[in-house]
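Backbone geometry:
***
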Amino acid sequence: MLKVMHSAANSPAPSSQWEDLINLPAPNSVQWDNIKTQLDLVLLALETLTGIGSEAMLQAAVNLNLESRVPDRVALWRLRQSNPLRKGQGGRKKLDVEEARALVLITCYLAKQHQELIRRAVGLLEQMAEDNREPHQAALLGDYIDAFCNTYQERMEEDATISTDELTHLALKMLIDLLFYSGPGGHRRLWLALIDRSIKF
């Protein structure tokens, strides 16, 4: 069973978090496409659970002094369009290491802001598992799963091989991951997970 995490009283300042990421291993060129996909999916989970949009992400960039790397809505859209699974070619660009670090810090900052909701959703997921009930029978989880699956299908290229069950599993896995990214050291966890998963993806 997952243990519910509690936030630490003091969080490291954004500059020290940036230094943390600089000191962690950097991905190699072969890993990049998978990292862009994974990062976009984590943001997708956060969006569909909390209802936040690009404005909240841009405000987080300002609060973290990262607006030079994510200056506006168009720049954010282009960074997310770098996910090779996304529909459309117009915004696709190469995501560089600094932009990836910025997105990691923004994601974890927003996850921490919504930690109570994330914790509640994961707690519900545990409860449903204990009761041998399907997650979508809980309103919060059902709404999240629907929103995640619908948004994924709207934004990503058609993939006949991915079933509704697989999308649901992906949504719930991302939800559990968000709990860990919302806690102390979440930015380190997310960065290392991106590199680790890019090898296995």
